[in-house]
Amino acid sequence: MKIIRCLSDKIEEELDDAASYIDLAMKWKQEHPATAKLFYELSTEEMGHMEELHSAVVRLITEYRSEHGEPPKEMQTLYDYLHDKHIKRATEIKVKQGMFQAE
Question: Whole-angstrom Cα distance, residue 90 to residue 98?
Fold first, then answer.
């Protein structure tokens, strides 16, 4: 399904932005704490966008299953790969966000 590919690309963009913002937050935390906090908040917002996009993917797959049965093996394999990749990246970002809050 082309829409899942589109959503997956957007998930990656949101993850890239979230990672960029949290890296900036960590870099500027001591010297410019208010701006660092803004970067942190932007990072968390991007993660929220990512979660909304992920929910849309899950909804589409659920709808597909109810209408057509299991998705083709190739589609499921690709989804599983991308999902695992996204989860790993999201976890790394959330760890950094936690570190920012803890310092």
Answer: 12
- Predicted TM-score (pTM) of this structure: 0.92
Per-residue pLDDT of the chain (103 residues; tens, 9 = 90+): 789 999 999 999 999 999 999 999 999 999 999 999 999 999 999 999 999 999 999 999 999 999 999 988 888 898 899 999 999 999 999 999 999 999 7
Q: Could you state, in order of their start, the residue ranges of all structural domains in the chain? A: 2-102
Query: Closest Cα to residue 93, out of 31, 11, 13, 21?
Result: 21
Contacts of 7 (CB under 8 A, 6+ apart): 53, 54, 56, 57, 60
- Helix or strand or coil: residue 74? helix
